[in-house]
Amino acid sequence: MIKVIAVDDEQNWLIAISNLLNKEDDIRVVGTADSKESAVKLIKDNLSFDVILMDISLSSNKYDGIEAALEIKELKKDAKIIMLTSFEEKELIIDSFTAGAVKYVKKTDYKTIADEIREVYNEKSSYKAYELLIADFSKLKKEEQLKDLTSAEKEVFELLEKGYTRSEIQEKLIKTENTIKTQIRNILKKLGVKNSKEAVRKVQTKGILEKKKYKSDNG
């Protein structure tokens, strides 16, 4: 039995898609959520699932579903997420894949959702192709964000990303305190963030959250 979590801010849609999927012999909807927070909570509560159906837009800003996907992938790296959308904006679809989704399906194609779930669950060849493309794309996005850093700064950032403290980085790289301080300061300035935690978060989320904030601030 393939266990599915469905996430959408429209209750009528949640009920309809749950009823549709539960008619399948091999699929069961084991949980539903209507917001980013409630979706992430299901994962934190260790609800057992195989595939998540995630609406791209859980609010008026169009990015909550993508942000939820990012947070879920941070909690469970192997989570298989299919994004549902009423939009056809190329940027939103690209950001969905960047966030870690493995497929997207238009809501108007709801009749194909069961088959899409099976394909992702069974990791068929087309799914594997998506997975490889997404991995390559994520690597390129990371390189793009770190392009202004020197090789020495990139080395420091990699250690920050792994959770090393400043003193641990000093010891590992055999550098002075002032050198590490200067390199971290340069990293923060180039990435446009206030601290190391924000730097790591920005790169790990591939700049999507900053894009969301920019759009919110600029209407």
Describe this structure in words.
The chain has eleven helices and five strands; from the N terminus they run E-H-E-H-E-H-E-H-E-H-H-H-H-H-H-H. It is elongated and about 65 Å long. Helix content is 58%, strand content 13%. The chain has a five-stranded parallel beta sheet with strand order 2-1-3-4-5, sandwiched between helices. Mean pLDDT is 85; it is low at 214-219. With 219 residues, the chain is α/β, with parallel strands linked by helices. Strand 4 (80-85), helix 4 (90-99) and strand 5 form a beta-alpha-beta unit. Helix 2 packs parallel to helix 3, helix 3 runs parallel beside helix 4 (90-99) and helix 7 (151-161) crosses helix 9 (177-191). The chain has helices at residues 11-22, 36-44, 64-75, 90-99, 113-121, 125-145, 151-161, 166-173, 177-191, 196-204, 208-217; strands spanning 2-7, 27-33, 51-55, 80-85, 103-106. It folds into two domains: 2-139, 3-Layer(aba) Sandwich (Rossmann fold), CATH 3.40.50.2300; 148-217, Winged helix-like DNA-binding domain superfamily/Winged helix DNA-binding domain (Arc Repressor Mutant, subunit A). InterPro entries: CheY-like_superfamily, NreC/VraR/RcsB-like_REC, Sig_transdc_resp-reg_C-effctor, Sig_transdc_resp-reg_receiver, Tscrpt_reg_LuxR_C, WalR-like.
